[in-house]
Structures are given as C-alpha cells and as structure tokens.
Design a protein that fits this description.
Radius of gyration: 27 Å
CATH superfamily of the largest domain: Multidrug efflux transporter AcrB transmembrane domain
Helix content: 40-55%
CATH architecture of the largest domain: Up-down Bundle
CATH class of the largest domain: Mainly Alpha
Number of helices: 12
Structural class: alpha+beta
Number of domains: 3
Distance between the termini: 19 Å
Number of strands: 17
CATH topology of the largest domain: Multidrug efflux transporter AcrB transmembrane fold
Strand content: 15-25%
C-alpha cells in the first residue's frame, strides 16, 4: 500500500473541522449597528415559504396599457430571471393572460427583520432600464435612507440622447475593485456582446475626456469621465455601492428590463406552514441523530468509525456551504422542507459509504491479510459499490432539477407550483452526494492511510480485526 505522510491525518482533520465550523456559523463582524458578513453560514440561508413565510403579490400593466399575451409572458420571464439570479428557487409564478395579471409568491430574505411586503416586491417589479447618456444633467436631487445623494430625472442633452441601452450587455456581476490609493470599492462589471463592443468603442472614442452618465430607469447611478477608448467590451459601473446594492444592480441588469411598467394590484404576507419552531426542532433532532450515529460508528468500527465521523462533518459543512452562499462563485439557495429531506438522505448515503469501506477492511483482516494489505484491498473493493449507488442518486437528482427547476421543461404535465419544493430536494441531494464523494471517498481514505502509518494506531483490532497479543 502506498503510504501517506503521517501528519496528513491531523492536517486534513483540522482543516475539515475548521471548514465545517465556518460553514455552519459563518464569519461576520459589527461596525456599530452595521453587520458585515465575511463568510456566510446557516444564518444566511434563505428559508422557503413553508419555513419562514413570504410575500404574495398580483401585478398588472401600469395605467391603461393593454399588454399582449407575448408581452405578459416576457414580463413573467424577466421576473423569474430576477428571482433565480437572487437565489430564490422556492417561488410560484403565473401569468393570467385573460385578465392581464402576473401572480407571484416568494419567501422572505434571510436577514429580513421588518417584513415589508411592499419593499420586497419592489425589487422584482422595477422596470430596470439601463441606459448610457451624454453628460450628467438632472432635474431633482434627493437623499436615501443611508444619507446617499440620489440624482433623478435626466434633462437637456442627457434626457434627449441615449447612447446605448442594456440590450447590449451580455453579463453583469458585482466585484470588489482596488483603487490606486489602496482602498477598495464595490463596482458592477459589464461584459458587452459583439455588437455592444463596437458600439461602446465608438462611444468612448467620441466622448473621450467627457462625462458619460449611466442611468437605471430615471436614477443616475454613475457619471464617470471617459479616460480611455474601451474596445474589449468590458465596462465598469462605479458609485456608492455596497455588496448588496452592487449585486442587486448586477442581477437587474442581467435580467433585463420589463417590457412595460408594472403596477401592484394586491400584495400581502404569507404565513409559514411550519415556522421557525419546527426548524429548531429539526435542528435538535439532527444533532441528536448525529451523536447517536457517531456512537454506533465508533463502537462497531473503531478507528475507521472515528474517521467516518470527521468525514461526515466535512460532508455536512460542504453541503451547507453550497446552500448558504459560502463560496462567492455560488449563489445562496432557498432551503425548503424537501430540501432538508434531501440533505438528510445524502448524509445517510455518506454513512453507508463509510460502513461499506469499514466492513470490507474487517473482512480482509479476518481473512488473514496484514493491516496495509487489508486497507488497500478493502478500500479498493468497496469503491465500485459506492460509486454505483451514488451515481444512481446523482442521475435522479439531475432529472429532478431539470424537470422541476428553473427550466421547468415538463411544467405542462406537473404544474409550475412544484418548481421550488422538488427542485430543492434534487439540489440538496445532488450537492450532498458530491460532498460524499469528496469527503467520504477521497479525504476519509487519505486520513485512514495516514493514521495507519503511526505506530500507536497500527493495531489490527482498531480496524475491526481480532485482538491478538495486544495487536
């Protein structure tokens, strides 16, 4: 058996425990009353309507505008894209073409405190029309709740001329940009399509050393001076952005503008079907269940059982990280009760993975193999069975996500209301199984081979073999 350096066990175990701790509890600090989240944890998860409740609203075209069926479906698609971009998967969205109505239901944010339904629906119903205009003339000036100055309503040439609109934008994302003085600020990076590259090159050529303002609807969000000709199709919107406002703006730009302005007909709060008490009860039950599993694994499988518990902690941490938005490249995910069920099922599969490996090692030891031979043969023989079982679940999870996810390719059969709940189950089951592959197969075996190199842990009875002369 190829030996693994002895310190690897301790290094990997400590890294897994540290990662799991930060994935569960997150890292944040306070500056006065303002909380800054460095790493997201369980507290930053957006819970579904069944657990935390949410908002329901009915929209119609503003004024007397008579929207066509195609325009109504386009508005519905834009709202859906905005929710997906915000990591909202537990939603219901319908277009009533007979009455020119759009009905939507979605959960509260994870950090919601005031539960203001009007403010929540304003984020998804804003027209969000992005335009680039010459100059920076505006008519009115106000101050928002944070004390930032807001310039509204373009005038003069700024109002009369639109150099480019948001239709030329291929992608938009919030990033942290370092300035020349060493400070950092949140900006929105725009990636333009091929036609937009040429158009933006012409704009920056014609307006070099002049101001080109950027507007979202009738609000000026930035008014930079063009210093250089930009020909690579990458533009930056700067302003007094926080990570939240920059992300919200990027999501709106990516989703595009609504084909018409929406007017709220009715809105209100939705009460949770389970509530936070049920969530707390599930959390307590999960902790108790994990402790019982840990005791059983250690009693039956000894040292491999201890390593299995460490890998299971890592699997839980990795699954939570994929849901909470721990990794910047992955958006936070809306967690529903079926999603929790998927997570629990994947943890069960992780236990099964470690049990199969431990049993194979015990069989090899009782068959007369040396410790190194038993570890090599046992881990090798168990691999095929583990992969077969997990790959079946991966395929099922992907099918559930495709059928009931944002693509919703079979909604005409199953209906759109199933989108969030079943998609959540498929998603958490998939990330749980992938986490199992990483922790339960790779890292657990790495730790097992490493610790087997330490003299105090080379006794075969620690791995399930018979105890003979203290070995």
């Amino acid at each position: 058996m190829k030996r693994v350096p002895k310190p690897v066990f301790f290094i990997v175990a400590l890294l897994i425990l540290a990662f799991t701790f930060t994935a569960v509890f997150g890292i944040a600090y306070y500056n006065g009353d303002n909380k800054t989240t460095v790493i997201k944890g369980v507290g930053d998860i957006r819970w579904g309507i069944d657990i935390s409740g949410g908002v329901n609203a009915t929209f119609k075209p503003a004024g007397d505008y008579d929207a066509s069926d195609r325009e109504l479906e386009a508005a519905k698609a834009t709202i859906e894209q905005r929710m997906i971009a915000s990591g909202i998967t537990d939603y219901e969205l319908y277009a009533d073409t007979a009455k020119d109505r759009i009905i939507v239901r979605f959960p509260w944010k994870s950090d919601e405190k005031e539960y203001n339904a009007g403010e929540a629906i304003g984020e998804i119903s804003a027209t969000a029309s992005l335009t680039f205009r010459p100059g920076n003339s505006y008519e009115t000036q106000t101050v928002d709740k944070n004390g930032n100055t807001i310039m509204k309503t373009p005038t003069g040439e700024t109002a009369e001329t639109i150099l480019m609109d948001g239709s030329y934008v291929e992608d938009a994302k919030a990033t942290l940009q370092k300035e020349q003085d060493g400070s950092t600020q949140w900006v929105v990076n725009l990636t333009l399509n091929e036609e937009g590259k040429e158009k933006f090159k012409t704009i920056t050529t014609d307006y070099k050393d002049k101001v080109v303002s950027i507007w979202m609807d009738d609000v000026m969000i930035s008014a930079p001076t063009v210093n250089d000709v930009i020909s690579d199709g990458n533009a930056v919107i700067s302003g007094s952005f926080t990570v939240k406002t920059a992300t919200d703006l990027a999501n709106k730009i990516k989703a595009g503008a609504l084909p018409f302005e929406l007017e709220t007909v009715t809105y209100g709060n939705i009460s949770p079907t389970l509530g936070q008490n049920a969530l707390l009860a599930m959390g307590v039950a999960a902790v108790i269940a994990f402790i019982l599993i840990a005791i059983i694994m250690i009693v039956f499988y000894r040292l491999p059982g201890v390593i299995a518990i460490i890998s299971l902690l890592g699997q839980m941490g990795l699954s939570i990280a994929a849901i909470s938005g721990y990794f910047p490249i992955m958006s936070s995910f809306t967690m529903t009760l079926p999603g929790i069920a998927g997570l629990i099922l994947s943890i069960g599969m992780g236990v099964d993975c470690n049990v199969i490996t431990a049993e194979r090692i015990k069989e090899e030891l009782r068959g007369g193999r040396t410790l190194d031979g038993a570890l090599e043969k046992g881990t090798k023989n168990s691999l095929a069975a583990i992969i077969d079982g997990n790959m079946t679940v991966v395929i099922v999870s992907i099918i559930l996500m495709l059928v009931f996810g944002p693509t919703n390719i079979l909604s005409f059969i199953f209906g759109e209301a199933t989108t969030g709940t079943i998609y959540a189950f498929g998603y958490t089951l998939l990330v749980g199984v992938i986490s199992n592959f990483i922790m339960g197969i790779f890292f657990s075996r790495l730790m097992l081979r490493s610790i087997a190199g330490l003299k105090p842990f080379r006794k075969t009875w620690l791995y399930g073999g018979a105890k003979k002369n203290g070995k």
